[in-house]
Design brief:
- It is a single chain.
- By secondary structure, the protein is an all-alpha fold.
- It starts with a helix and ends in a 9-residue tail after the last helix.
Length: about 90
């Protein structure tokens, strides 16, 4: 049951129907699976909840340290958070 809903959430995410995906995801029972935490990370990332996304992707890596998607997403978020544009401070 939860796996079907998780598949539906991922399908909605792929269709950029983020709000619908988020509402459906909130109804899911927390699963200690790679797929659950990867989906949570993607959802949090869509809403720019960087800390929550990083925590979710880190949880994926606790479950499977070789998950390349979680590793790549963590690097992506870290690059966003570390971005510094000196022109922003140039009056």
């Amino acid at each position: 049951m939860n796996n079907d809903k998780l598949d539906k959430v991922n399908s909605l995410l792929n269709e950029e129907r983020v709000d619908e995906a988020f509402h459906l995801f909130q109804k899911l029972q927390v699963l200690e699976t790679e797929e659950y935490w990867l989906t949570k990370g993607k959802l949090e990332q869509k809403f720019q909840h960087w800390g929550n996304a990083m925590n979710a992707f880190s949880k994926v890596l606790e479950i499977n340290s070789e998950n390349s998607e979680a590793t790549n997403q963590l690097h992506f978020i870290q690059n966003i958070l570390n971005f510094w544009n000196p022109e922003m401070f140039n009056p």
